Amino acid sequence: MLKNIFIFIIALFIFAGCSTKEVQPLPEQSVTITEVEEENPEWVKKALYKEYDKWCETPYKFGGQTLQGTDCSSLVQKVYLDAFGIKLPRTSLEQAQIGYEVPKNSSKEGDLVFFKVNAKTRHSGIMIEKGKFLHASTTEGVKISQLNDPYWKSKYLQTRRVLP
């Protein structure tokens, strides 16, 4: 069964070609952990690390959208477009409304993670592997951080799944 699902996903990407897809919010649904959800396709992690290799020298720049400087939500938007051909909204607030929420302990590669830094500031990133997320840090630029780091743990807001 997992082999059939994997073949279906590969076929979906092959037939999609280079097109981009506008992601629409999914209806609210209860999440149950299944064998399929627990298996994280290796290609997702590889695609995300390839994007990290491209962006890792990039400094943080509020409103930035290029390799010369980027902010967190632009990084998330660009990585999703380049790695998966999926067009996400531009801001963290809009990104936090797509897909569906999953429990923090059920997060997997490709899930979006959101943080409430202060009363007005939200921060977004992408789970790159178990317990680690890719993001644009305001002080260190594009990097990979630990989800359980005391700072991020205290600011954690939610995890959302966009990829199947």
List keywords for this structure.
globular; alpha+beta; disordered N terminus; single chain; endopeptidase fold (from Nostoc punctiforme); 164 residues; 34% helix; six-stranded antiparallel sheet
Question: Could you outline the blueprint of secondary structure elements for this entry?
Answer:
Layout: H1 2-16, E1 21-22, H2 35-38, H3 42-55, E2 65-66, E3 69-70, H4 72-84, E4 86-87, H5 92-95, E5 100-102, E6 112-116, E7 122-129, E8 132-137, E9 141-146, H6 150-155, E10 156-161
Parallel strand pairs: 1-4
Antiparallel strand pairs: 2-3, 5-10, 6-7, 6-10, 7-8, 8-9
Helix pairs in contact: 3-4
The average pLDDT is 82
CATH architecture: Alpha-Beta Complex
| Helix content class | 25-40%
Please list the strands of the largest sheet in the order they lie side by side. Answer: 5-10-6-7-8-9
- Number of E-type strands: 10
CATH topology: endopeptidase fold (from Nostoc punctiforme)
Task: Please give the CATH class.
Answer: Alpha Beta
Account of the 3D structure:
- By secondary structure, this protein is of the alpha+beta class.
- The chain has one domain: endopeptidase domain like (from Nostoc punctiforme) (endopeptidase fold (from Nostoc punctiforme)).
- It is 34% helix and 26% strand.
- It contains six helices and ten strands, in the order H-E-H-H-E-E-H-E-H-E-E-E-E-E-H-E.
- The strands form three sheets. A six-stranded antiparallel β-sheet has the order 5-10-6-7-8-9. A two-stranded parallel ribbon has the order 1-4.
- A hairpin with a 2-residue loop joins strand 2 and strand 3.
- The radius of gyration is 15 Å and the shape is globular.
